[in-house]
Design brief:
512 residues; alpha+beta; 20 helices; 12 strands; 40% helix; 11% strand
Length: 512
């Protein structure tokens, strides 16, 4: 009897809540049914036993990695994966150097969260797992990639292999466009310019009204031509002309020359800062924040940043979205696509847990994972108010990242951009929705073989350096535009046509 009692005691200790069904009898006999024990268990995790995975990520200085972030613990609770994170601070160069050293020393982490350069360089050498070899083990990723084939292309290397898992959804945060001082335009009854002539006229009028300003300013010097050149019917450096289905080089084209002459005129007439080609981010911010400029081009999210910064001293200060103007006779009222973020996870081929890590990566492409990494959990990170999710005790996106770790490097692949939008003001949300109307097709991301890369690193660099040096001279009135044809010949003599052919060859290969 004692043994029986002890057995039942042990059984009770090993179960959770139990419920006994009443004993049933049949035909008045003493026949009894077995007790039905209903065991209430916790939801199963992705792995039965804990799995430790070492991960290297870049730690943003704006929201540096924190060991106690909610999202790291939440992922562990859902999957049983213990993410052992080494967060590399400093610059992106510091991160790249750290990864290069770990690969050279044969001491790689199980995974790294990175851009495409490192996996493309070392993947073909055997350092990283080729995702394409494991598609049958990745049902969720396979399903997603078949629905989004164009999103896969930027992650392929020259032979069609893919050494990383792509992210999708968060690229909207990088959306760029024109933003302007809506309050100043309204005050002086100025209209939004539709073409380059109207754009010049409105800048001229603003200069008359505010002589000590530079009405149009931007940072990144020549780099902003990547956004603006397509509005002028051309492109910045090598670009794909979708109408002609061919690769071209913008900085030698007539449309580009027209744009360059236009910006030279803006410079000569004092409508852009005299140091615009060397203007850094800090200097650019100062010009806009001190109300010395009225139109700029940058991340659209800057709307909230500038408005929040300046309204303390000037409540009327209002930055808003401005639709792109058509440049020249062959331009369009559109702008280059910018809503993208090419980064993701690469798995070390040296890892002892490749199969399990593949399963972990595949989980990130489920609706459950997407919702978790975008929002967290109701009652813990967000609450629902009037049918709308709102983060708890996190007033803006920076707060969401710093407090919970959501939308930070290494803690998402698929992402619900509504998790960003809910933190924005109505002004910024409407700006993003408006800007989407003016997107041109995204430029293809072609990939080169090792042999082609050597040509790009030598001939291609020589062409690019000479172009930027001479273009700056044209723009700053140090070389006359009468020498444009000579400049084009100089680039061709350096091997420009050969590089254009490489882009076309790589594109044709990618399409196959």
């Amino acid at each position: 009897m004692l043994v029986i009692v002890l057995c039942f005691a042990s059984f009770a200790a090993c179960t959770s809540t139990t419920k006994k069904e009443p004993v049933s009898q049949s035909n008045g006999t003493n026949e009894k049914t077995a007790d039905a024990t209903l065991e209430l268990t916790e939801p199963s995790k992705l792995f039965d036993a804990p799995l430790k995975i070492s991960i290297m990520v870049f730690s943003s200085p704006n929201w540096p990695y924190q060991e106690d972030w909610y999202i790291r613990k939440a992922i562990e609770e859902k999957t049983n994966v213990q993410m052992q994170v080494e967060a590399i601070g400093g610059s992106s160069t510091d991160f790249t150097n750290k990864v290069n050293l770990s690969i050279a020393a044969g001491e790689m982490f199980d995974m790294i969260y990175t851009g495409t350069v490192i996996p493309e360089q070392y993947g073909p050498q055997g350092a990283f797992v080729n995702v394409k070899d494991h598609m049958n083990e990745l049902p969720n990723f396979k399903k997603w990639s078949e629905k989004n084939p164009l999103e896969i292309l930027p992650y392929l290397v020259a032979d069609g292999s893919m050494y990383m898992f792509p992210n999708y959804g968060i690229g909207e945060t990088n959306r760029r466009g024109y933003i302007y001082r809506k309050d100043i335009f309204k005050k002086h009854n100025l209209s939004i310019p539709q073409n380059e002539e109207e754009f010049y006229n409105v800048l001229t009028e603003l200069k008359k009204l505010y002589p000590d300003t530079y009405p149009f300013t931007f940072r990144s010097s020549l780099g902003q031509f990547e956004m603006m050149a397509q509005s002028w019917g051309t492109g910045w450096q090598y670009y794909f002309d979708s109408s002609k289905k061919e690769w071209r080089y913008g900085p030698i084209e007539d449309n580009f020359k027209t744009m360059a002459m236009y910006f030279h005129k803006l410079y000569k007439d004092g409508l852009i800062p005299p140091d615009w080609i060397t203007l850094d981010t800090s200097g650019w911010q100062d010009i806009v924040a001190t109300e010395k400029a009225f139109i700029t081009i940058d991340y659209i999210s800057r709307i909230d940043g500038f408005n929040n910064m300046v309204r303390g001293t000037n409540p009327d200060f209002t930055m808003a979205y401005m639709a792109p103007y058509k440049g020249g006779a062959n331009g369009v009222n559109k702008m280059a696509a910018s809503a993208e973020n090419i980064a993701g996870y690469a798995i070390s081929a040296q890892s002892k847990n490749v199969d399990k890590i593949l399963k972990f990566m595949d989980w990130f492409y489920t609706d459950e994972a997407k919702d978790l990494v975008s929002w967290g959990e109701e009652g813990k990170t967000y609450q629902v108010v009037n049918g709308q999710k709102q983060f708890i005790d996190a007033k803006d996106l920076a707060s969401v990242r710093n407090k919970y770790g959501l939308a930070t490097n290494g803690f998402y692949l698929l992402y619900d951009f509504d998790g960003h939008l809910v933190t924005y003001t109505d002004e910024l949300r409407s700006a993003i929705e408006e800007d989407r109307k003016y997107d041109l097709p995204a430029q293809p991301k072609v990939k080169f073989t090792d042999e082609e890369q050597e040509i790009i690193k030598t001939t291609g660099v020589n062409v690019s350096d000479h172009m930027q040096e001479q273009l700056s001279k044209f723009l700053l009135d140090q070389r006359p535009f009468s020498e444009w044809d000579n400049y084009v010949k100089e680039l061709k003599d350096l091997g420009l046509d050969k590089i254009v052919e490489l882009y076309q060859k790589a594109y044709d290969r990618l399409m196959k």
